Amino acid sequence: MTDIVDPLPRPLASPVFRALWIATVVSNIGTWMHDVGAGWLMTSLSPDPLMVALVQAATTFPMFVLALPAGALADIVDRRKLLIAAQLFGLGGAATLSGLTLAGLTDASILLAFTAAIAIGAALSAPAFQAIVPELVPGPALQQAVALNSLGVNIARAIGPALGGVIIAASGPGAVFAANALSILGILAVLARWRRDAPDRHLPAEHMVGAMRAGLRYALRAPELKVVLIRSVGFFLFASGLWALLPVIARRDLELGPLGYGGLLTFMGLGAIGGAMLMPKLRGRIGANALTLAASILLAIAMAGLSQTAQFVTAAAALFVAGLAWIAMMASLNGGAQATSPGWVKARALAIYLLVFQGSMAAGSTLWGSVASRIGVPSTLLVAAGLLVAASLILASRFPLGRASALDLAPSSHWPAPLVDGAVEHDSGPVLVTIEYRVDPGKLRDFFAAMQEMRRIRRRDGAIHWGVYEDTAAPGLVVETFTVESWLEHLRQHDRVTNADRVQQEALAAYLTGDGPPVVRHFVTR
Asked: What is the separation, in whole angstroms, between the first and last Cα of the chain?
């Protein structure tokens, strides 16, 4: 297995990517089998809809807690070693739960605890798995690789639930948990054989806390990423009701066994595969914002239909439609998070998206399970569906998706190296940077308005203070200032500036006079 792949047009032509993709599909099948087994077992251990919904919460809450630390780790440590450690942790949790269940020792609390433990391993893995894709395939094949990963998830969704139902019917949930543990071994084998060449760093790696702060700062200061996060909350908080209550619907309302429950999830997976095939054509015709609005409304219709059905066929049809809508939203939101984050913070940006996704799912699962305990499952699904439509209509108009597609977030490297007389230690600071502009006095008002975008960029990339001032004795002489914690952090700002930022900076030239560029000075506290 080679470390560096040849520039091939197809992702699966890369030996490492191909092996890891196959192993991940197998592992995801095991994960879906576990989800079916855990949900089904909980309906036997406790009939309370809240307890059944807590299985979904136990699956998603660890991602909410650990997504950002995992993303920071993925950006500052060897991703291969992080992935191996996380997979071993998940393997231990799955194997232990299997042993306890086969021995008849699992109760509701044990099931929730080990489901959460397995989810912790997945949470530690998720940002790193997404971040290594550019290392495994050539640039022209990256979009195909991302699409293949989404397809793999949906293949697993189509196979895993049905296979899990068969195993539950034949041998019980303990056997499903054992199969999930075995499914992890393939990923471990591929990662063990992969000889990763870590990228060269000309600056020291960030510390954990600083890396997390930088990721959060970027998310708060990048408006395009904020749109993705807001839309994610507005969708997953209400759509989570479907996942949380489906085991109760299958067992109590439809009176299905494990095979029937797995069959329902298989139809949802088939719908997702169909949606994945339709996505490129639909996005090209109607755009991302209209597509996500239509998907949200379609999912709400499916939820409402599921709440009123008492037949397997109509429930399966509703879930097929739900699967189509679900993958349209997942692909659009995940793609939006990818498109709005540059390489230096990509794992952390994706981790924040996963944090919002899983946090909304965990909160929604708990909420809808609690509501269902009071007003019943059908009424709860109708309420969740109605709120999903209302939230989607409001957010699609106020926070439209798709504006990030024109952003070029590749590093521009257009900032010249700072001029220094002698050496400056990395921990020297704070650092004050001043940029002196000569502005046409007749354009000062427009110049100051344009500088507000520079304020956002400086603060996003590490400035702790920012200001812009005009000289009272020399109209048109304007000084921009920003302060950074240390010299090392300012050097990182040079690495973080993108081509999109460069366009914004170059636009300021329309307001300037004179032939020379703005004068930049650096002041360091000794």
From this structure: 50
Distances (CA, A) of 97 to 115, 121, 378: 8, 14, 32
Measuring CA to CA, how many Å separate 432 from each of 452, 456, 463? 19, 17, 10
Paired with 436 in beta bridges are 479, 519
- For residue 248 the two structure tokens come to 């109760």
Q: Which residues pair with 437 in a beta bridge?
A: 478
Produce one character per residue of 498-511: b if its CB has 16 or more CB atoms within 10 Å, e if not.
Answer: bebbbeebeebeeb
Count of other CB atoms within 10 angstroms of residue 8: 14
Q: Are 245 and 27 in contact (CB under 8 A)?
A: no
Distance CA(102)–CA(96), nearest Å, equals 10
SS3 label, residue 360: helix
Given a cut of 50, is residue 1 above it in pLDDT? Answer: no
Predicted model pTM: 0.78
Average pLDDT of the chain? 86
Pull the structure tokens for residue 88: 């071993």
The answer to whether residue 3 scores a pLDDT higher than 60 is: no
Q: CA 362, CA 370: separation in Å to the nearest integer?
A: 12
3-class DSSP string for 126-138: HHHHHHCHHHHCC
CB 249 within 8 A of CB 308: no
Distance of alpha carbon 119 from alpha carbon 108, whole angstroms: 17
Say if residue 204 is preceded by a cis peptide, omega within 30 of 0: no
Percent of the chain with pLDDT over 70: 95
The DSSP code for 417 is P
Q: Mapping DSSP to helix (H, G, I), strand (E, B) and coil, where does residue 3 land? A: coil
Sequential DSSP letters for 474-519: STTEEEEEEEES-HHHHHHHHHH-BHHHHHHHHHGGGGB-SSSPPE
CB burial of residue 309 (10 Å; 0-12, 13-18, 19+): middle
C-alpha angle 423-426-427 in degrees, rounded to nearest 5: 120
Exposure on the CB side of residue 236, measured as CA atoms within 13 A: 27
The torsion angle over the Cα atoms of residues 351, 353, 357 and 359, rounded to 10 degrees, is 60
In terms of phi and psi (left: phi > 0; alpha: psi -120 to 50; beta: otherwise), the region of 402 is left
Nearest to 335 by CA among 304, 299, 291: 291
What is the rounded distance in angstroms from the CA atom of residue 156 to the CA atom of residue 34? Answer: 12
Residues 172-216 pLDDT 10s: 899 999 999 999 999 999 999 988 776 666 677 778 888 888 888
15 within 8 A of 5, measured Cβ to Cβ: yes
Whole-number Å distance between alpha carbons of 352 and 338: 11
